[in-house]
Structures are given as structure tokens and as C-alpha cells.
Write a structure and sequence with these properties.
The complex is a heterodimer of chains A (374) and B (221).
Chain A lengths: L4 E8 L5 E2 L3 H5 L10 H8 L3 E2 L13 H14 L10 E6 L9 H8 L6 E6 L4 H14 L5 E8 L7 H5 L2 H6 L4 H7 L5 E8 L9 E10 L8 E2 L2 E4 L2 E4 L6 H7 L5 E2 L1 H20 L10 E4 L4 H13 L9 E2 L2 H4 L6 H10 L9 E8 L4 E9 L1
Parallel strand pairs in A: 4-5, 4-6, 13-14, 13-15
Antiparallel strand pairs in A: 1-7, 1-8, 2-3, 6-7, 8-16, 9-12, 10-11, 15-16
Chain B lengths: L2 H19 L3 H8 L4 H27 L6 H14 L3 H10 L4 H6 L4 H14 L8 H26 L7 H21 L9 H21 L5
Helix pairs in contact in B: 1-10, 3-4, 3-5, 3-7, 7-10, 8-9, 8-10
Classes of the chains: A alpha/beta (374), B mainly alpha (221).
């Protein structure tokens, strides 16, 4: 079986960075007043700037497929391999442009490349690792020599005031619950991509994929992040099961929501998963040179750090790399945007090991990937 | 096995157990908001039969501790005294929600509690049964991390007074001290006994499984 190498990366962040004071100019104000939760959420997630795919008039200048395609093209511009050599395109996203067709088809439609296979992975942040596994394993099996994986999100589409103001809940209280405001002030837009090949770069470093270990705990936790459906007595009821589209809007099926209490309940299983990999000898903290971790907020990080330190499993904080505070939390795109910056930073040295961590609160999923600089 | 490794493995056991509890029918009902007053009565009746025996096995563990380990024996004894009348809270809660003392006291153990009870007594009868720290980690963990949440959810859902959920909320408020005590005991020299670390972790695993079983078997006598 051959090895799989991440040989180039890219990011595509639409528009200009948007500071905390300008957020509402892009995502609007729900109910005529800036949310009382804004300061608290920003203090928690520590995000100071992010990018939005819309302009200040609220018009969207890109689609999810377009920003993914731009990231794929950029990744090949950074690569020793040409886009025309692409054989397998794997996309990841939380919500894309359509219900049908799949995102990978829409992205391929934007690319000037022929004779490729595609695969669409939809989940939340963790879809990036699901997509990565699919590409990495196909390369290892020898099915393809060159693959590209993308992650892309336009979360801000769903944060527009009109999307909330038509719900019965809003009409009643004229404000959004924290579970919805948290997402409005945490998620933003962007895309990233990585080229994966069966051979390393000849003129520069590559990242060999040593392993990917992911686990779903969805049987143990109820749905935490929800869109396109509502939770009723613990059951997920789809927009499509409502008597009419109006009823679905009224119930709030299209208002993205995250149960923050449930996120905190999930942290222990993420930690337990990490500790199991330590006990199996797959992760040796002293041998990790860089930790690239995608947390949806800095406050979660603090909780995790506390627990890990207690059991001697903490990797020194100076080894942690993150750009979420200035590039935003872009869901499935984040891990690519993180790796892109680290890969081209000049900081990576031959033989170093990078531990990537992508947890997903959607319905309790957790993933790790170990990369080695070669 | 050094303390850190023991703690790490105990955390793995705990996180697995804690999340597995979410799949237990009665707790699933609670988190989904479909938990009724009859469910609560049944929980109290079943839980009481385990709690009433708790301080007995801790006291048994104290009497199984030889004189080289007097400090550890004191810890077991103190712990047993602290807890030995806790079950009375469950009884008065049961009466507050319409049950009778006779009903809760005369109820049998469910089949899960029977196994749990037999295991705890058998283990605490062994000489210097410090591996029971694994059991304490699980049971104290439940008190510290889960009980309060359950209590408050039950109170809200069934619109009850504080007194009717006191046992659960009380444990959430008081058990952090027990956890500190736990770490002190772990560091008191017992890990120098050969194989003790491994035994503690294994005992934690078994206790977690049996505890889950008694919750799954609520009403099965």
C-alpha cells in the first residue's frame, strides 16, 4: 500500500476582514437591536476578525461551490502538480448551495478539469476529516495518484434577520436565544483545500498522513447543532415533515441552533478519545511538535486544557497553532485554513509531527489526524 | 502504575461510562423531557436499595484493612459515617411525592442492584481492598458530575420543591471534597502495592458496568 502526502494547501477568504464593530453591517441586526449576547460570545470565542461572502448591501458575491472551486484552483497553483492531473475531488461542508445535487458535483462544474471522480461529504466541522479519510485511503489503495480535498462554508447566509424574524418564537419574544446568537457571532465564511498525492513534493516539504482516527458518539448524545429541522422531545423533526413550508418557517426549522449545554457535556468524550489514543501509544505528547486544533471557541479550549493537565496528557501550549481568532471559525474549512497558514509559515522542519484535532458538536463526532513533515 | 497513568485510565473509563449513561432508558426520558412522576418514584425506590448498602461495604472495606494502613482505614471509616444515613433523604423525597415509607423500605433490589451489591461486598471483604478506589471514583463521579443535573432536571420537569430532589442536588454540591480525598488516598502509598493501579482501573470498569446495569434494570425485580 502506498503512502498519502498532503503536498499543497490553500485558503480562500471572501472579501475583506470584518472587525467586531462591523459584524452587523454584514449579517444584520435581528429585532432592531444588537444582541445582548454579542459581547459575551465574542469575549468567549476571542474572535476579532472574520470574512463574509456577502457585501454590506447583503448581496452574496459567491456560492459555497464557487469559494470551494477557488480554493481548489489556488491549492493547485501552490502545487508541483497541475490541476489537469486531478483524479479525485472530495468536498466537505455543513450546508451548501442546494439540497440536490451534491457539493462535489457543483464544485466540479466550476472547474476546468475533465475525467475525475467526485465525492461529497456533508456533516459539520468533522466533514473535513471524513473527506480527508476518503481521499487519503483512495490514494493509499492506489486508485488515484492525485486527489484534492476542500472545505467550504457560507454560514452567514443563514444569519440574516429575515431568516429568524418569521419564526413564531421570534414574533413572541422579539429576540433570539443564546443558542442562536452564539452561532451568529461565532461562525463565518471561507474555504480551504489540500492536494493529496501518492508521492511527496520534490522541491519542498510535504506532510505524510501517518493516521486518521475518528469516532462517532452519536448513539450517546442527542442532536446538538441543528438546521433544517427542529428537536421535539429529543426527536429530530425535518422541515420536510411539516404540513407546509410556512409551518416549517414558523417552527424555526431554518434557524440554525446549537445546544450549548450539550456541547459542554460532550467535552469529556472528546478528552476520553484523546486519552485512549495516548494509552494505545498512537499519540506520544513529547513527540508532538505542533497541535492544530479546531475548537469552536477558545472557552472550550480552556476546559480541555484543565482536564488534560490534570492527567499529564497536555501538550505544551506553545506548540498549539490557531488562527481562528483572526480568520474566523469557518466550520469544515477551518482545518485547511489552519494547515495552509502553518504549512507556508516556514516554521515546519523535517521529521516534525503535527497533531490535528477536529471535534464536531453536531451530534458528537471527534477526529484526530497525525501528520509528519517529510 | 504511576498516579498519572491511573488517573488517565480512570478518566477514560469515566468518560466512556458517563456518555453510555445517556443511552439508559430512564435517563434518556429525563433528557428528552418525557420523565413522569411515576418514573421518579420508581427511580427513588430502586436507587434507595443501593444507597442503603453503600456505607456497609465501605465499612466492610475498613474492617478488611490491616494495621499497616491505618490512615487508609480512617478514610474508609470517615467516608462510611458521612454516607450511612444518606438513604433517608431518598425515603423522605419519596414520601414528598406521594409514596409511603413502607413502600420504599419493603421494595426488593432490582436484578442489577443485586449483582452490584454482591460484587461490592465480595470485593470489600478482601484484605486491603484499595482497588475499591476504582468503585469510589465512579460512584463519587456520579455524585459530583451527574446527580445535580439530574436533580435539577427532575425538579424543573415535575415542578417539585427543592426538598423533593435534595439527595441529588446535595451530592452535586458536596462531592468535590470527596474527589480531593480520593486523590490524596491514591497518593498515600497504596500504588506501591504491586498491580494495584491496574486493579483500581479494572474495578472502576466493572463498577461502571454494574452501575449502568442497575439503572437499566429499574423495575426488574
Amino acid at each position: 500500500m502506498s503512502e498519502a502526502y498532503l503536498t499543497s494547501f490553500s485558503e480562500f477568504l471572501p472579501g475583506n476582514p470584518v472587525g467586531n464593530d462591523e459584524i452587523e453591517e454584514y449579517i444584520g441586526i435581528v429585532g432592531g437591536e444588537i444582541s445582548k449576547y454579542k459581547k459575551m460570545v465574542l469575549r468567549q470565542n476571542k474572535i476579532t476578525s472574520r470574512y463574509y461572502a456577502s457585501n454590506k448591501d447583503g448581496e452574496f458575491e459567491y456560492t459555497v461551490a464557487q469559494i470551494a472551486a477557488k480554493a481548489v484552483e489556488k491549492a493547485f497553483l501552490n502545487s508541483e502538480t497541475d490541476l489537469s492531473e486531478l483524479e479525485f475531488l472530495v468536498t466537505s461542508c455543513s450546508i451548501h448551495d442546494s439540497i440536490i445535487p451534491g457539493l462535489a458535483s457543483l464544485v466540479h462544474g466550476q472547474l476546468n478539469v475533465d475525467h475525475i471522480d467526485v465525492s461529497s461529504n456533508q456533516s459539520v466541522c468533522g466533514s473535513s476529516i471524513m473527506a480527508m479519510r476518503s481521499a487519503v485511503n483512495s490514494i493509499r489503495l492506489g486508485e488515484f495518484q492525485t486527489a484534492c480535498v476542500s472545505g467550504s462554508e457560507i454560514a452567514s447566509r443563514h444569519f440574516r434577520p429575515t431568516f429568524y424574524e418569521s419564526t413564531a418564537h421570534f414574533k413572541q419574544v422579539n429576540a433570539l436565544p443564546l443558542d442562536q446568537e452564539f452561532l451568529r457571532y461565532t461562525l463565518s465564511d471561507g474555504a480551504g483545500a489540500a492536494v493529496i498525492e501518492s508521492r511527496p513534493n520534490s522541491n519542498s516539504i510535504s506532510l505524510k498522513v501517518n493516521w486518521i482516527k475518528a469516532r462517532s458518539f452519536a448513539n450517546r448524545f442527542s442532536t446538538c447543532m441543528i438546521g433544517g429541522a427542529v428537536k421535539e422531545e429529543g426527536r429530530v423533526v425535518s422541515w420536510g415533515s411539516q404540513p407546509s413550508l410556512e409551518a416549517a418557517i414558523d417552527k424555526g426549522c431554518f434557524a440554525l441552533s446549537q445546544d450549548l449545554k450539550l456541547v459542554y457535556e460532550m467535552i469529556p468524550v472528546w478528552v476520553g478519545h484523546y486519552l485512549s489514543l495516548l494509552e494505545e501509544g498512537l499519540i506520544i505528547p513529547e513527540e508532538i511538535d505542533h497541535v492544530v486544533s479546531h475548537y469552536s471557541s477558545e472557552s472550550l479550549k480552556t476546559e480541555v486544557v484543565k482536564l488534560l493537565t490534570k492527567v499529564g496528557a497536555m501538550i505544551d501550549e506553545e506548540k498549539w497553532f490557531s488562527n481562528l481568532t483572526y480568520k474566523g471559525n469557518t466550520g469544515s474549512a477551518s482545518i485547511f485554513i489552519l494547515l495552509n497558514e502553518l504549512f507556508y509559515s516556514g516554521r515546519l522542519k523535517q521529521g516534525e509531527k503535527i497533531l490535528c484535532h477536529v471535534p464536531e458538536s453536531g451530534q458528537a463526532y471527534n477526529s484526530f489526524m497525525l501528520l509528519e513533515v517529510v | 502504575m504511576p498516579t498519572e497513568t491511573v488517573m488517565r485510565n480512570l478518566l477514560i473509563v469515566w468518560t466512556d461510562f458517563e456518555s453510555r449513561l445517556n443511552t439508559v432508558p430512564i435517563l434518556k426520558k429525563l433528557s428528552n423531557g418525557r420523565f413522569s412522576i411515576d418514573d421518579y418514584k420508581e427511580l427513588l425506590v430502586n436507587h434507595r436499595q443501593q444507597v442503603v448498602e453503600g456505607s456497609r461495604w465501605i465499612a466492610r472495606a475498613a474492617s478488611s484493612t490491616t494495621s499497616e494502613y491505618l490512615d487508609q482505614r480512617s478514610t474508609f471509616l470517615k467516608h462510611s459515617v458521612t454516607e450511612h444515613r444518606d438513604y433517608e433523604m431518598l425515603e423522605s423525597q419519596f414520601c414528598l411525592i406521594g409514596g409511603t415509607l413502607d413502600e420504599i423500605r419493603s421494595a426488593p433490589k432490582n436484578i442489577g442492584t443485586e449483582i452490584f451489591h454482591s460484587y461490592m461486598f465480595e470485593q470489600s471483604s478482601q484484605e486491603n481492598p484499595f482497588h475499591l478506589l476504582g468503585s469510589m471514583f465512579i460512584i463519587e463521579g456520579l455524585g459530583q458530575r451527574k446527580a445535580k443535573g439530574w436533580g435539577l432536571a427532575i425538579k424543573e420537569l415535575l415542578d417539585l420543591d427543592d426538598k423533593a430532589v435534595e439527595f441529588y442536588v446535595y451530592h452535586g454540591d458536596n462531592d468535590p471534597e470527596h474527589m480531593e480525598e480520593f486523590e490524596q488516598t491514591l497518593n498515600s502509598g497504596i500504588l506501591e502495592i504491586e498491580g494495584m493501579g491496574e486493579k483500581i482501573v479494572k474495578t472502576a470498569k466493572i463498577t461502571a458496568l454494574l452501575y449502568e446495569l442497575q439503572l437499566r434494570e429499574i423495575g426488574n425485580y
